[in-house]
Each structure stands twice: as structure tokens, then as C-alpha cells.
Design a protein that fits this description.
Layout (H helix, E strand, L loop, with lengths): L1 H19 L1 H45 L2 H14 L5 H15 L3 H13 L6 H16 L3 H9 L8 H14 L3 H13 L8 H9 L5 H11 L1
Length: about 220
């Protein structure tokens, strides 16, 4: 009987607590509903933004193919200004920078590439591409030390080591430092994916006196 009495008292205590804190329970329930509905709305909005950004980028590619520079620029600006939660603004900037170089507008290309680098919230392939392309622009302008520093202070992913090292080799060669250029070219050749040919790299090494670049790289790997 004491057990039942105790249980009844507990039930009554719970009822009294709920009655006395009814507003708090209602508020908590409303808060949970708002979080669920708000989260669903946010996810839907992000998905809509991503879809729209994808469509705009596809339209940019079409405009680029048609050489419709006006449409290309307009759509690129829309992407860069209004879709920061997606990866497409950086892709848009890279495409605009490429076209700026084709039009010999190197200042504009540099501005766009630096925008990509400034927007890096996390490392991405767009950031790595922008770094190498900006270094090439600096090299073309004769700012070799700045170009070299930009590349050497970066830590590219394995997929971009060859691209970076070849650019570093080109810059060293432009600086009149063939030994450093050769070392960079060899490193670039070492990181070429299996099954991929790199004839230009091999030619560059042969021009620096390396008789059989591919064989030497293979031998070096075996020795290592």
C-alpha cells in the first residue's frame, strides 16, 4: 500500500508540476517545432540556391562557348555576388579570369584570381588553380620573386604538385637558375599520374641536359 501511495504521490506531483509550468512546456514545444520547420526551410533554400547557381554556371559555359562576353560577364557577376554558399562563385571567377587573359586584361584577371584566394574559407581545387594562374600572370609581368613565393609557400594537394612544380621550374628558368629549374621539373615529372604522358616536361628537362628524363625518374624511384 505504501508503494501505491508513493506512486500516486509521484503522479500527482508530476501533474502539479506540468500545470504550474504549462507556459514553459508550450514555449519549449513551440521552440522545437520552429527549429524543425526552420531547419527544413533552410535546407530547401540552400538546395534551391545550389540548383540556381548550377544553372547560371552552365549558362556561363554556353556564353563562353558562343563568345558572348557580355552575357558571360553579367552571369558571372550574379554568381559572385549572390551565391556564396555554393562553390560556383569561385568557378565563375576562374572562367572570367581566363577570358580576361585572352583579352590581354591582365589587371582584371589578377583581380579576379585574388578574389578567389581571398574567399578561401577552406582549401579547394579552385584555390589551387587560382594560385597557379596568378603566379603565371606575375611571371609574365616579370615579378618573378612574387610568383615564386606564391607557389612555394602553398601546399598543393597531390593532384596539383606536377602543375605547381612545372610552374616553379619555369620561373627558376626565367630567373636564370637552371639547376633549380631542373630540380623542379624532375619533381613535377615524379608526380605525374601513372599512365599519363608528360612530353613537354621531358622536353624541358632534355633542354637542360637531362638525357632520358623518364628513365632517370624511374631509376630514382627505384633507388628510393
Amino acid at each position: 500500500m505504501e508503494i501505491y501511495a508513493t506512486e500516486n504521490q509521484q503522479v500527482e506531483a508530476i501533474r502539479d508540476f506540468i500545470a504550474n509550468n504549462k507556459k514553459m512546456f508550450m514555449f519549449s514545444l513551440l521552440l522545437v517545432v520552429c527549429v524543425i520547420v526552420g531547419g527544413k526551410f533552410w535546407r530547401q533554400n540552400v538546395q534551391r540556391q545550389s540548383n540556381r547557381a548550377s544553372d547560371l554556371y552552365q549558362e556561363m559555359l554556353i556564353a563562353d562557348h558562343k563568345r558572348d562576353i557580355q552575357a558571360l560577364g553579367a552571369k558571372g557577376q550574379v554568381l559572385m555576388q549572390g551565391f556564396s554558399r555554393t562553390p560556383y562563385p569561385k568557378l565563375a571567377a576562374l572562367l572570367l579570369a581566363k577570358n580576361a587573359v585572352l583579352e590581354n586584361k591582365f589587371d582584371k584577371a589578377e583581380e579576379l584570381l585574388r578574389w578567389v584566394l581571398a574567399e578561401k574559407k577552406s582549401k579547394s581545387f579552385a584555390t589551387e588553380i587560382a594560385t597557379e594562374r596568378l603566379a603565371r600572370i606575375l611571371q609574365q609581368r616579370g615579378d618573378l620573386d612574387a610568383a615564386l613565393l606564391l607557389l612555394t609557400k602553398s601546399k598543393p594537394s597531390s593532384a596539383y604538385i606536377t602543375i605547381y612544380e612545372e610552374a616553379i621550374g619555369d620561373i627558376y628558368l626565367a630567373k636564370g637558375q637552371p639547376d633549380q629549374a631542373q630540380a623542379a621539373y624532375k619533381k613535377a615529372l615524379q608526380h605525374v599520374p601513372i599512365g599519363v604522358q608528360a612530353p613537354i616536361l621531358q622536353i624541358k628537362l632534355m633542354e637542360l641536359g637531362v638525357a632520358d628524363p623518364a628513365a632517370q625518374i624511374e631509376q630514382g624511384d627505384q633507388d628510393a
